[in-house]
Amino acid sequence: MYFKEQRYEKAKASTLASTHTVELPETGLLDSISLQFALVNKSAVYDDSPTTLHHNITKIEVIGDNDKSLFSMRGEQAIAKAYRKMKSLPEMLQNGYGGKTQWGVIPIFFGRRYKDGHYALDLSKWDKVELQVTNAVSSTYFTSLSMETRLCTIEDSVEAHPKFLKQWEYEAEKPAAATSYIRPKLPTSGMLRALMIQLDPDLTALTGQIAEDPIGDSYNWKLWFKDRALTVRDHRPKDLMRDEHYMNGLGIGQSGCLPYPSKTQRTDFHWAYVENVTFSPIHTSDADIALLSFEDSRGRMQILNSVGGSTFYMAHIRGIGLFHTFEIPFYIDDIETEYLDLNRYKPIEIEWYGFEAGNTHRIILEKPIGQGPAEYA
Fold it and tell me: Do residues 365 and 190 touch, judged by C-beta distance below 8 A?
């Protein structure tokens, strides 16, 4: 057995605010897909927020036989899922300056990690498999978007590969009002490898300010097994984010960006709970410069304001809860016999207490699934 890597579709322009479709090969064992994006900013890109590449990729989906969803996530979710599988962030350059290019890689893994060798998507079991990438890029603030598609396949394998890992946004719901609850239930069959939650906050138009931050002390998240007979999690979201980092060995997550300074608009610093930020300002003269003002907050969307003609070359960020997500893995050695038997513990219920209503609770599931439409569930 060996792995083959190929550039399947060279960098190709995507129509703005549309869906880019790539028909995948008819045969082969697909380990992973790597999507490389380049987004060119217009001069006034900083007049609209959020202006990040990852926020404007609104859906990435792999579809079999026209209607079977094999992978389906928003751009931020796909990066967050890849982060857990890679134990590090995919390559990404977030640039808030006009006329500059943002780029990023979003990997899709059909196994537990890159080059898994055990789980893979068998393309021959489907009549047709398509990759569909939807963007919400505005022509007012951006010039162009391009996408390159790379495939990694398993070649000359003697293993049967009867399953792949299906990963998808299972449900999205927002509390009807402040101080109200949502109580979604998970599926009742199959084995669940991991449960990822995104507490996706509403952002104020133009400024990108988070109206109601879901990591505050007044919010709470619970997970129940067997019709609430077993309480498995009962925490504030930021505690759940910390717990995940301890368990998965991720440590404090790190990322970087080139932020455009503004007195009114927020920069996306990626992590729901920012531990610290290190800035690298530069100045062309010998004059003293006042560096910046940074809000007394650990939230993800922050005002970054410079005075004295300084330019921010880079911000290096450390924190937890990438894009307001946390994940609960149901394994130690990462073998299928360890995964959570949904039928055994059903009904499995979540309770999200929305102290304020402006957050969408998104459930992302990951399950081993048999190959082909006859095995699909």
Answer: no
Distances (CA, A) of 115 to 30, 110, 118, 160: 10, 9, 9, 16
CA dist., res. 268 & res. 270, Å (int):
5
The tens digit of pLDDT for each residue in 45-61 reads: 988 888 899 999 999 99
Predicted confidence (pLDDT) per residue in 145-186, tens digit: 999 999 999 999 888 899 999 999 999 999 999 999 999 999
SS3 labels along the chain: CEEEEEEEEEEEEECCCCEEEEECCCCCEEEEEEEEEEEEECCCHHHCCCCCHHHHEEEEEEEECCCEEEEEECHHHHHHHHHHHHCCCCCEECECCCCCEEEEEEEEECCCCCCCCCCCEEHHHCCCEEEEEEECCCCCCEEEEEEEEEEEEEECCCCCCCEEEEEEEEEEECCCCCCEEECCECCCCCEECEEEEEEEECECCCCCCECCCCCCCCCEEEEEECCCCEEEEEECHHHHHHHHHHHHCCCCEEEEEECCCCCCCEEECCEEEEEEEEEEEECCCCCCCCCEEECCCCCCEEEEEECCCCEEEEEEEEEEEECCEEEEECCCCCCHHHCEEHHHHCCCEEEEEECCCCEEEEEEEEEEEECCCCCCC
Q: How many C-beta neighbours within 10 Å does residue 372 have? A: 16
Record the tokens describing residue 335, joined without a space.
């073998």
pTM attached to this predicted model: 0.95
Residue 31, token pair as written in the block = 């380990």
Amino acid at 210: I
- Determine the Cα–Cα distance for residues 290 and 295; give it in Å rounded to an integer: 15
> Could you tell me the domains of the chain?
2-253+321-370 (2.60.120.730)
